[in-house]
Structures are given as C-alpha cells and as structure tokens.
Amino acid sequence: MSDRRLRVSAKRMLTSSICEIELRDPDGLALPPHPPGAHVSLDTPAGQRRSYSITNPAAEADRYVIAVHRQPGGRGGSVSVVDDTEIGSLLTVSAATSAFELVEAPRYLLVAGGVGITPIRSMLHHILGQGRSRVRLVYLTRTREETAYAEELDRPGLVDVVVLHHSAVAGRADLWQWLAEPDDETHVYCCGSTALMDDVRALTMHWRPSHIHFEDFAGVDALGGTSAPFTLTWEPTGGQIAVASDETALEALRRNGVRTSSSCESGTCGTCRLRLVAGETEHRDLVLTPPERESFVMPCVSRAAGAAITVAPL
Ligand code: FES
C-alpha cells in the first residue's frame, strides 16, 4: 500500500467532538478508488499511525473525507489529527483499503452508532444510488447535537430509509424489531461502539454469519488477557525470534530488523497481514474470516497458541 502526501482542503466540526476533514492531492490528481466502507491510514502530526473510515461517496474520485472523533482520553491520535491540522496541512496518507466490504445483496440493514456513521454513510450513498427500497439505516446517538450529518440524514426525502434514535431522549433502542426475522436477502452492516456491536452480534445469532458485518476501529488490546512468550520463526531467513509476554509479534519482528507494514496495531485494519506457515495461532484480530485464519496471521495482536509459529511475508 503506497503512501502519498495529501493536503487538508477543508475541515469543519460536525458536532462538538467529531471533526470532518477533507483530503485532496495537492496537484489535483485523482486518488486511488475508495469502495464503500473503505478506510485510510495516516500519520498524525504527533507521529502516530491511525486508521479512519472514508465517508464520502465512492464516486468522488478526487477526495477522501474522514470524520474523526476527538477523544482526549484516548491514545492521542485523534486529538493530534483534530488539533494539529489546519487547511493546507500536508499529511502522509495510505491508499484506501477495505476490510468492511459492501457485498452485493438485494437488501441492506445498516446500523450505525455515533461516529460509526462514517463508513456507513458511504455505503448508504452507494446503495441509494442503486435504489432506495433496498436499504434501511438505523442510526443511534445520544442526542441530536451529538449526531454527525443529522441534517443530511434527517430530512423528508429519507424518511422511509433512515431511523434516527437518540438514547438521551428515547432510552435504549430496541434493535430486535429489525433483527428478529432473519432474511436471506438482507446483509447487516454495523459500525459503532463495542457495546452496540455486541448487541447486534447477540441479536443476530440466528442469522447466517456471512450476512452480518462489523467494523471496529476501537480494535483489540494486543496484550490483554494472558499473553505467554513464544518463538516466532521468520521463514525467509529461518531466524528464530523470542517473543516476550509483554510484547507483540510485530514488535518482536521489528526488534530483530524485520521491516513489515502496520497501521492500526489493534487488529482492525488488515495492514500487517502475514502468511501463517506453521503452528497453531491464537487469533485476536477482527479482520480475518475463519477460513483466512488457516493461512494468515495479524502479528500486531495475534500470538502462538502453543510454543511456536512460523510466518512469512505475503
Ligand atoms: S496493523 Fe492493523 S491489523 Fe495489524
């Protein structure tokens, strides 16, 4: 995935904590395509690598628009992107990539919570372009003031498509009304807080798993739970690397001079994917499908399930 320098060409607060940033090529060149649900990774001015979903329609080839939730209690990436950029700032940005792909389906149910509207909005625009009867969006926020794109989505023309629910006014949303009846023709796409995604997971246990899709940039804690040391063999050189209990496989590879790409470093973006050559793996990522887990591993979060694994570049 090649990086390029993009210019911040517009910037505005959508709510008191969600900032929309438009990125364009400084020379006006078209950007690599961004299918609905795609994201980019960028280097924040403070130097962290972070991933953000693209929210503008895929047909807009000359810009990526992202919405960043400024989280003062987070790891600092979002605060730097919002506070340390201005119109004209140049940022190093990856090409768009998608781990939250919109599959072809007769119908869609989109469920967004808070800033989770970002990739869902690009999906909504795409589907609406193909026929409005095919999609329903359930968009959950705490209040109207905390609702990004409220005016765009809460308008008469979309009254049969969009359900806006504000929990501070109406209490907890009852998602069962939309999920009770599994429907082979509908795919469900959900992006939001861990609690929302856990709810949707629990309420769709009776659906075909292949019809339920999640996006989670909150990521996973790479060293959470029990993390035992193990040996990682790097197949191209045969080098054996000891991975300590308090480091990730990715960190251990780098410590030993193996250069491998990464972005989110929380198991959500798919950038660090390596080929799994041998050994049993404790997969902790949110990217790989069960069949993919036979052949690939995400070293930013995943570890050996036993004493050793062998990995190789793709
Ligand atoms: S760096 Fe994003 S999944 Fe590993």
UniProtKB/TrEMBL annotation:
<dbReference type="Pfam" id="PF00111">
    <property type="entry name" value="Fer2"/>
</dbReference>
<feature type="domain" description="2Fe-2S ferredoxin-type">
    <location>
        <begin position="228"/>
        <end position="314"/>
    </location>
</feature>
<dbReference type="InterPro" id="IPR017927">
    <property type="entry name" value="FAD-bd_FR_type"/>
</dbReference>
<dbReference type="InterPro" id="IPR006058">
    <property type="entry name" value="2Fe2S_fd_BS"/>
</dbReference>
<dbReference type="InterPro" id="IPR001041">
    <property type="entry name" value="2Fe-2S_ferredoxin-type"/>
</dbReference>
<dbReference type="InterPro" id="IPR050415">
    <property type="entry name" value="MRET"/>
</dbReference>
<keyword id="KW-0560">Oxidoreductase</keyword>
<dbReference type="InterPro" id="IPR036010">
    <property type="entry name" value="2Fe-2S_ferredoxin-like_sf"/>
</dbReference>
<dbReference type="InterPro" id="IPR017938">
    <property type="entry name" value="Riboflavin_synthase-like_b-brl"/>
</dbReference>
<keyword id="KW-0001">2Fe-2S</keyword>
<feature type="domain" description="FAD-binding FR-type">
    <location>
        <begin position="1"/>
        <end position="103"/>
    </location>
</feature>
<dbReference type="InterPro" id="IPR039261">
    <property type="entry name" value="FNR_nucleotide-bd"/>
</dbReference>
<keyword id="KW-0408">Iron</keyword>
<dbReference type="Pfam" id="PF00175">
    <property type="entry name" value="NAD_binding_1"/>
</dbReference>
<dbReference type="InterPro" id="IPR001709">
    <property type="entry name" value="Flavoprot_Pyr_Nucl_cyt_Rdtase"/>
</dbReference>
<keyword id="KW-0411">Iron-sulfur</keyword>
<dbReference type="InterPro" id="IPR001433">
    <property type="entry name" value="OxRdtase_FAD/NAD-bd"/>
</dbReference>
<keyword id="KW-0479">Metal-binding</keyword>
<protein>
    <submittedName>
        <fullName>PDR/VanB family oxidoreductase</fullName>
    </submittedName>
</protein>
<keyword id="KW-0285">Flavoprotein</keyword>
<dbReference type="InterPro" id="IPR012675">
    <property type="entry name" value="Beta-grasp_dom_sf"/>
</dbReference>
